[in-house]
Amino acid sequence: MMRRSEHILRMAASAVRHVFIGDVHGCLDELNALLRKVGVTRDDRVVFVGDLVAKGPDSAGVVARARELNSVCVRGNHDEAVLRIRRARQQGSDLPRAKKTHLRVAERLREPDWRWLETLPLYLHFPELDRIVVHAGVVPGKPLEKQHPEDLMTMRTLRPEGTGSPRLEDGTLWARSYPGPTQVIFGHDAISGLQRHPFATGIDTGCVYGRELTALILPSNELVSVTARRAYRELDR
Questions:
Q1: Is 124 in a helix, a strand, or coil?
Q2: What is the mean pLDDT of each run of 10 residues along the chain (237 residues)?
Q3: Is the dihedral of CA 184, 49, 134, 231 positive or negative?
Q4: 71 in a structural domain
Q5: How far is residue 199 CA from its own chain's centroid?
Q6: Domain of residue 109, residue span
Q7: Is there a contact between 163 and 171 (Cβ–Cβ < 8 Å)?
Q8: Residue 88 DSSP SS3
Q9: Which pairing describes strands 200-202 and 183-186: parallel, antiparallel, or unpaired?
């Protein structure tokens, strides 16, 4: 049984405003505009759902801003792609097949940025909110610690046999059939956009593609968005 002191601490933690922010992809101006619109203060806890970098105009600036906010973040597939370049260079091995956008980011990050990115976990658990954060998705019925890293970073759908896939055409949206009971907050799927299912909320609303950058605020369960200044990339389908 939870002791009264633990219950009080958990209640206090759940009263803190948590600001969950969708895929930023280097869109620093839009991130700053969203933070102003939400009115983020030092008392708020800022949580990013991954893919801070690549595609947009200022990935290094976004990482630096995330560090300034003392935020937490899960690892997205584009964050991981940049880290693979870093690991290859450190080990003196051949570079992995890398997109130009990832190579550009790798050239501009500073050592404190790299150290911060290297600490990003594949998932975060907020028991006081009954929420889990991943970048892309989870396969129902598997404990978090047994989820495949690629599923956590890239999946969008469930195949008929129940395995995760990054391809929308391979099955049904995983979040649509996710049974809970813990709520999941995720990003990654700009094609599908905002998703609000009984036990999962997707907040990648395609800022880098000229749409919006969105925040989910808890415990009020409010959605706040800002419009992108322009489309920095075409949406890949």
A1: strand
A2: 41 76 98 98 97 97 98 98 93 81 94 97 97 97 95 98 96 95 97 97 98 98 98 86
A3: positive
A4: yes
A5: 17
A6: 18-227
A7: no
A8: helix
A9: parallel
Q: Kindly state the helix (H) or strand (E) to which residue 226 belongs, with its residue range.
A: strand 222-227
| Burial bucket for residue 100 (CB in 10 Å: 0-12, 13-18, 19+) | exposed
Determine, yes or no, domain membership for 236.
Answer: no
**Which residues make beta-bridge pairs with 158?**
164, 172
DSSP string over 5-68: HHHHHHHHHHHS-EEEE---TT-HHHHHHHHHHHT--TTSEEEE-S--SSSSS-HHHHHHHHHH
- Would the pTM count as exceeding 0.90? yes
Q: What is the CATH number of the domain that holds 141?
A: 3.60.21.10
Tally the domains of the chain.
Answer: 1
Spell out the residues 6+ positions from residue 18 whose beta carbon is closer than 8 angstroms to its own: 44, 45, 47, 126, 129, 217, 218, 219
Q: What tokens appear for 81 in the block?
A: 């792609």
